Structures are given as C-alpha cells and as structure tokens.
Amino acid sequence: VRPRSITIPIKNRHVFITGGSSGIGLSLAHHFASHGARVSILARDHRKLEAAKEAIQLSTGVDVSIFSADVRDFDAVKKAVEDAGPIDVLICNQGIFYPQELEFQSLDEIKFMFDVNVMGTFHLIKAALPLMKKDRKSRGPASIAIMSSQAGQVGIYGYTAYSASKFALRGLAEALQHEVIADDIHVSLIFPPDTDTPGLEEENRRKPELTSIIAGSSGMMKADEVAKKTIDGIKKGSFIIPCNIEGELLSIATAGLSPQRSYLMAFLEVIAASPVRLLGLFFQWNWDMKFEIDPLELMESSSRQKVRS
C-alpha cells in the first residue's frame, strides 16, 4: 500500500473558478491565466465580472470567459458550466461569512451561509462532474478544489454557523475523493486563515470581541499569497492545502483518515501527532480561560490594551 504521486497540469487546461470577480478568486484567475490556462470565472455581479475580465486581460493578455449566476440556483449553475465547456480544474471558491454568536444570529443568515457555502458547492460539483468525467483518460488528470477555512478545521467562538458550513465541506471532499479517484479526478481542500479581501472589513465590524482575539492569533494573509499556495497544492494533487504555519499544524492535528500523497508528510503527521495535540490543548485551555470571562470585563480589558498600544 503506497500513495500514488500525481501532477495536475495547468497549461492549456480549462480552469473554472467561482467567486472569481474579487478576492482570492480573482487572484487565482490572474495566476492561472499567467500559467497559460484557459480561465472561466463565475460570480453574481456582472459589472464586477466585466471589471475582473478587463483587469486579467490587461495583466496577462488572456481573455477570460465570464458567467453571471447565483450558486444557490442549480439550473443557472448547470447552464453556466455547460456553456463554459469541459472543465479540467474546478475551483469552488464562493463563500459568505457572517460572524455572530449562535444565540443572536438569525436563522435566515445561517441558512444563507449554508446555501452558498455548502449547497453552492454541491451544485457546482453536481453540474460539472459529468463533463469532467467525459474523455478524462485521454485528457489527463483533473482537479476539484474546494475553498474551506481554518474555521473548518477548528470551531471558533462567534463562528458557530460558519464553522459548521466549512466543516461540512470536509466530509464532502473526503467522500467525493473516493467516488472520483477511478476517473483520475483529484480533490483538494484549501484552509486559508483570515484573508485581506473586499469583504473582510465588514466581517471585522461584525466580529464579537472574543472572535477577534482568537481569530487574530493566526494572522492575516493576502489573497495573492493564498492563491499561490492553492495553485501549488492543486498541481501536486494534494488533498489538504494549508496556507500558513498555523494551517500546517491544524492539518496535522486534524489529519484523521484524510488522503495523503506525500510519504514525507505522512511520516510527519504520524511523528508530530502527539506534540501537536499537546500544543492544541494549551490553545484550547487558553481559549477556555477567555470564554469564562464576563464579556463586559473582556471588552474593558481589550480597550485598555488598545489605549496602551
């Protein structure tokens, strides 16, 4: 029993990216286009899609295809995928995030997050799979990449609904890999931390104080950095694609029965499992101490620290 090495070629392949008009999706589109791929991007806002198309063409000389659709609408997604043509790399990058404690969050917001983050991903894969499987052996290996989050590796205060939607993607990815491996289709799951995107400012305004403290400990990445990590992982056929050192540690801590194609990483996961678990316990105990503090006392303490700094 041994892992089989895989290389997913990019040049002259068709890459279809959702959430491609801004943030990580737009950075991915830029990089794939510069790698010689044929790129299609999908988003809801046609005006933003046109602006993204123009920006990519100016920077890379590549004319990308754009599709306006809501991922919650399966028929619209199916039509866009069929119009785009056979896909070699499908990147399910769409996502929505409303941070708030479950007690205070509306059911409408929770449903909206699940419809976009989870059902939107099902819609895309369901629509694309028949075309991805067609003539696959002659076209070479393909990839389905799903954008999760570090909140899909560990539950975080104020992310109850969001974390649940991102944890769901892991179950989808692990089971799907079993179903498509015989067709030479390889699933990747990406776990970025907070990323500097157009929606981050609004997210930060909504974050509870405890959420900002805990989530901020992982640092923030640029969308371009996440895009580069994502593409490197896709090309290697990696199942888990962490984006920073915290993500690497979380990947080891949560490896479970996830696929692993690298002998070196498999060995590291086995050797590092115990010390990483111990480190994780220290983090959890530290968080628990914060959770037990009265919220008003916590905000006053945080305000005093900000004044000092």
Automatic annotation (TrEMBL):
| Matching CDD domains | KDSR-like_SDR_c
For whether the record's keyword set contains Secreted, the answer is: no
Gene3D superfamilies tied to this protein: NAD(P)-binding Rossmann-like Domain (3.40.50.720)
Q: Where is it mostly found? A: endoplasmic reticulum
User: Keywords, A to Z?
Assistant: Endoplasmic reticulum, Lipid metabolism, NADP, Nucleotide-binding, Oxidoreductase, Sphingolipid metabolism
Compartments, record wording = Endoplasmic reticulum
List GO BP terms, alphabetically: 3-keto-sphinganine metabolic process; sphingolipid biosynthetic process
- List, alphabetically, the GO terms of the cellular component aspect: endoplasmic reticulum membrane
The pathway this protein participates in, as annotated, is: Sphingolipid metabolism; Lipid metabolism; sphingolipid metabolism
Q: Which reaction does it catalyse?
A: sphinganine + NADP(+) = 3-oxosphinganine + NADPH + H(+)
Lipid metabolism as a keyword? yes
EC number, as in UniProt: 1.1.1.102
SUPFAM superfamilies named among the record's database cross-references: NAD(P)-binding Rossmann-fold domains
**MF (Gene Ontology):** 3-dehydrosphinganine reductase activity; nucleotide binding
Q: Which family does it belong to?
A: Belongs to the short-chain dehydrogenases/reductases (SDR) family.
Under which name does UniProt file this protein? 3-dehydrosphinganine reductase
The organism encoding this protein is: Chenopodium quinoa (Quinoa)
